[in-house]
Amino acid sequence: MEPLMALAIGLLYATAIYMMLRRSIVKLVIGLMLLSNAANLLIFTSAGMTRGAPPLIPEGALAPAGQVADPLPQALVLTAIVIAFGVLAFAVVLIRRAYEIVKADDLDKMKDTDT
Amino acid sequence: MVKSGTIILNTAARLLMPLQLLFSVFLLLRGHDEPGGGFIAGLVAAGAFILYLFAFGVTATKEVLRMVDPRDLIGLGLLLGTLSILPAWFVGEAFFTAQWWEIPGIGFKASTPLIFDIGVYLAVLGTLLAAIMTLMEVDKDEP
Amino acid sequence: MQLAVLSGFVLAAFAPLLQRWCGARTSLVLALYPAALALWLLTQLPAVMGGEVLVFSLEWVPALGMSLTFLLDGLSMLFALLITVIGTFVLIYAGGYLKGHPDLVCFHVVIVAFMVSMLGLVLADGLMTLFVFWELTSITSYLLIGFNHTDLEARKSARQGLFVTVGGGLALMAGLVMLAIAGDSWSLQELLSGGEVLREHALYLPMLLCLLGGAFTKSAQFPFHFWLPNAMAAPTPVSAYLHSATMVKAGIYLLARLHPGLGGTELWIGILSVVGALTMFTGAFLALRHTNIKKLLAYSTIMALGTLTMLLGIGTEGALIAFVTFLLAHSLYKGALFMVAGILDHETGTKDVTAMGGLRRLMPVTAMVACISALSLAGVPPLFGFIGKELMFESVLEVGSFRAIIFLLSFAAAIFTIAVAAIVVLRPFFGERRETPKAAHEAPSAMLAGPVGLATLTLAFGLLPVLAGTGLLTAAASAVAGEPLTVSLSLWHGINLPLIMSLVSLALGYLVFRHWEWLRGNLARLDPLFAHGPEAGYENLMDGIVRVSEWQTRVLQNGYMRNYIMVMVVMLIALVGNSLLLRHAPEFAISLDVQFHEAVVAGLMVMGALFACISRSRLAAVASVGIMGFCIALIFILFSAPDLGITQLLVETLTVILLILVLFRLPRFASLSTPLERVRDLVVAGSMGVLIMLLILTVVDSNQFVPVSGYMIENSVPLAHGRNIVNVILVDYRALDTLGEIFVLALAAIGVIAMLKLRAPKPEPKSAGKGQGAKESADG
């Protein structure tokens, strides 16, 4: 599964970067969303992908039965997902305010501090 | 922009919100053993309020929340998260060392990680509510 | 000992409070501190004179082997005594000089802090301790030069002094680090006992150059001498203290300190003696161009610093004895002369020596002090300066290499110095009375105490050289030499070459003084030449730095978002690609262990992303990003991450809600780029995608590292009492990270609220009330 995921994540990254390089501010937001998702998947995939063995320990046992998926990247990605949401909320509101003030959707027109 | 919803949405929201909140507390408490935990529970609880928000609008939701401002929730969450690291200090261990206490009678295990998780829950809930409610409020002010 | 010295910083902090309690007497109270330290040092004097090296060590972080160690040997003792004694006089003097100045409090704070830094510098044993105190003196000196902060010139001079000395400080740090590497120790004491190792180390040349860079800038050696005369913008007590007696000698101290370890090589002798002699001549010669009494003294200080450097460079036994003698003599008379200059400025309202005259009747005490000190400066017997100069001539005659140059330069310097001494004392005090801006009268006793004290020492040491010579100076000279020396000073050596040189230079010096006006007129013609001096070089360098930073800001910080992203992405591709492709040739096996439904989910995910990219409708783009997010949630669930799946699902839902709330406030998609730009962006984005793909393939295939989560899995139930390992990691093993993350979330929320609710008041007359309202509603 990893090679397929590598291809998919590569494509996700490519779309994300392409969108972030646009001048239209809404596209920047879309690019940001794609990038954060791609990064999460990158971390998740790098640890290796395991089917059907969640990092849970059965009731009464001291250790999981057999090999389980690595829990550490999962913990990292979990917080990253929520943080990405916080950052996204911040970014869209920032862009909304900027648009209200500058009245331009072209990032190239937002290059001065005094507008 | 977002108007109060239809009868179906209203009724569903009225019924679902308490259930969702209850479910979120359930997820929070079982999080240490089964899938769940502060982040997920906080998101579910936020979902409950946001559903209500869409059905009845900001003013009504604020009434439901009564005295509690989402921003206070964030503060409370951060406070709980920070406080939960202190008990270890009093028993002479390093910061963040988990402490467990058995509550007699019901056999429930209280612990600093649980307090911490509640802090996470409140912080996530507060953040989401604050962001979305502020957005909707501003929208209402400037049609 | 350390505490006694460092408590000075505490004292400095409390100086404003003292000001409230003691009022005008604050300076006197503060002067008790250096006086007490000086007394304590005197009690240690017998031990030090016996050749002992007192070590005071204070463990700081024993686990890291860090300690604060002070070292008290002859050299440190000499400097520490100078700092404390002159410091006492200067504080008393400043109380009179700056009486009623609104910033007197600041002055007290900074000058005491400076005093402590200087003491720390000369006492430090650790190289880093030395460096820290060194930089502290630079900073406090900056604050003191810029004391008259409403004066543009003063600010400019302060900045110049700071840039030059701190620039040298950087070189010094590099030098000290190399020294520590070469000698394998951070302790001066240990380093200097192993001189051979240092001198033969491969790093000797760069190390020496860096250390000299630090010392030369601090001690205003040619071609860095220009900052010192400009630093005369400082109030006179500061000039007397920092810019003659102490701080500028820090570089000299460093050279003397390192002499046993690094000195004696061809390189050391060559650089130090030639630079020293050049500085000597430059200082004495340039002094004649000026009529401002402080500038005259500043240039003669440069001359003295050059002399000291040169003597260290010559490095023979006689030269080292001359070094310590001259050092002591110079500090005494120059401190006194600066204070006299301050008195003149204070009482007559001018600093121009040509505007003063005949003041000796009005200010007899000041005139007396000035005469003694200036005669010492000129090197006239029976004053201490004479002994210093005799010894200096003696060692110049002993020089091995560059003899002719050094001899000529130092002889010329001596002549000009005598002329300067004559100008400084004869012009203001003798001759016919001239009207000055203020009606001159004798200075108050507080301002006289310091100069009188120093002049008395000059006279005493001159008449009874034994007082200074046998004890302290022997110890100091031995410390500089690194082996025991015996100093026996006397006024009369019999008729020999140095004496003849002294007499000839006196006569010639007087001649120069007689024709000073004429000489100065001619020197003024050389002014265009000075436009190309080292100071102009400094100005050009500064302008250049400003221009470069303007240029790079224009290029890199140009305000175009996509350029920033482009630069970052391209750098990332270059760096990661470099190590991925060139360092580890990517090796991976492609195994296609894919089930049908997994492939469908992954395909759907990519489709969602691609559609978001090409869609022309905002809503469609958001929806397709949503589809991609749900597919990711599915992948998480399929591959053993239930918590992640649930989180992703919930967040994705909330994201769509958020975007829909905001989207209609945002502009529609627009096509703004040219086709060429699109192709360029596609290439960059495509390379990034390929790079990431290769990266994942390589990473997944490598088994170089054992996962760190083994411990977490094993101890999840026994120690953390939790069966959901992911949650245990979040709230227990790595709770600190999580705490940080919820703080980030809270910050994002605060940012959102702030941006939406707190509006800048609109530029209308009634805006104040409106802004208030917005604020209240945000608080409510």
From TrEMBL, chain A:
GO CC annotation, single: plasma membrane
Keywords recorded for this protein, A-Z: Cell membrane, Membrane, Transmembrane, Transmembrane helix
InterPro entries attached to this UniProt entry: CPA3_antiporter_subunitC, NUOK/Mnh_C1-like
Localization of this protein: Cell membrane
Coarse class of the protein's main subcellular location: membrane
Segments traversing the membrane: 6-21, 28-49, 75-95
One Pfam assignment: Oxidored_q2
Entries under Gene3D superfamilies matching the protein: 1.10.287.3510
Highest taxon of source: Bacteria
Family: Belongs to the CPA3 antiporters (TC 2.A.63) subunit C family.
Protein name per UniProt: Na+/H+ antiporter subunit C
Annotated source species: Halomonas salipaludis
Organism placement in taxonomy: Bacteria, Pseudomonadati, Pseudomonadota, Gammaproteobacteria, Oceanospirillales
